[in-house]
Amino acid sequence: MSIPSLHRRSVKAITGSIRPSVGRARQPSSTLSFASRFSRRLGGFTRLARGRPDPRLERTVHTAHLPCDRHRRRKDAGSHATICGMGVDEPVRERLVSAGVGLLEEVGAAQLGLRAIAREAGVSHGAPRRYFPTHNALLAAVAVHGFADLSERFAAHESEIPRVRIDRMAGEYIDFAARRPEMFTLMFRHDLLQGSGENLRRTTIPIYRAWADLVAGCVRDRAEERAFGLWTNLHGIAALVANRSVELIAPGIDLDRLVLGTVAQHLSD
């Protein structure tokens, strides 16, 4: 039996019994709509069997992964993840990471779920799993951007003498925690540093080693001990700044003077 014959007989078998006639009540609209849908689908399969693609299927394939209109209309100037800001041609992985960076300070790491990131990036909810096997892997990729920002801040003072450079870097560290508290907290989450797939320790250790080398050039003894002690003190201050505890504990404190005093205390011979 040919495919066209199969098509006609199948449609007739379904629609013939439900076609309204004089003196009989019309069948429910849900039944008619089912028959109509079945007929259209069977027609599409018939065209495929004959070697002619179904235009409805083509439209579905071409538009399935395009962002919906509400994502195109978004005008969030502070977001890295809008379609206008990134461009639809940007690789999906980078779009997801950029969306996470843009959302982080707005909603916080605790609310930075895969669905929220996918929605902000204008991709399907299943897209993140194709690039990041776990939620932590995506968060770690977001944290890498934070370390890149911090490294750029430190690099801006490379031309200064070591002692002045340490003061400037200490100030940048505290300022980063104040301006990007959620990113700062995310960057130093232990569960992300361990086995996230992004190898964050490979990013953090060089930053600390550069710091320790600077301190070694400014002191005559116990360089490693002093470098680590100064770093931990500054990190404690930065953590309190990031979680807004300084305003509660010591609301009138001068942070700049505190930071410079901490540096001087550890580096003085």
UniProtKB/TrEMBL annotation:
<dbReference type="InterPro" id="IPR025996">
    <property type="entry name" value="MT1864/Rv1816-like_C"/>
</dbReference>
<keyword id="KW-0804">Transcription</keyword>
<dbReference type="GO" id="GO:0000976">
    <property type="term" value="F:transcription cis-regulatory region binding"/>
</dbReference>
<dbReference type="InterPro" id="IPR009057">
    <property type="entry name" value="Homeodomain-like_sf"/>
</dbReference>
<keyword id="KW-0805">Transcription regulation</keyword>
<dbReference type="InterPro" id="IPR001647">
    <property type="entry name" value="HTH_TetR"/>
</dbReference>
<feature type="domain" description="HTH tetR-type">
    <location>
        <begin position="90"/>
        <end position="150"/>
    </location>
</feature>
<dbReference type="GO" id="GO:0003700">
    <property type="term" value="F:DNA-binding transcription factor activity"/>
</dbReference>
<dbReference type="Pfam" id="PF13305">
    <property type="entry name" value="TetR_C_33"/>
</dbReference>
<dbReference type="Pfam" id="PF00440">
    <property type="entry name" value="TetR_N"/>
</dbReference>
<dbReference type="InterPro" id="IPR036271">
    <property type="entry name" value="Tet_transcr_reg_TetR-rel_C_sf"/>
</dbReference>
<feature type="DNA-binding region" description="H-T-H motif">
    <location>
        <begin position="113"/>
        <end position="132"/>
    </location>
</feature>
<dbReference type="InterPro" id="IPR050109">
    <property type="entry name" value="HTH-type_TetR-like_transc_reg"/>
</dbReference>
<keyword id="KW-0238">DNA-binding</keyword>
<protein>
    <submittedName>
        <fullName>HTH-type transcriptional regulator BetI</fullName>
    </submittedName>
</protein>
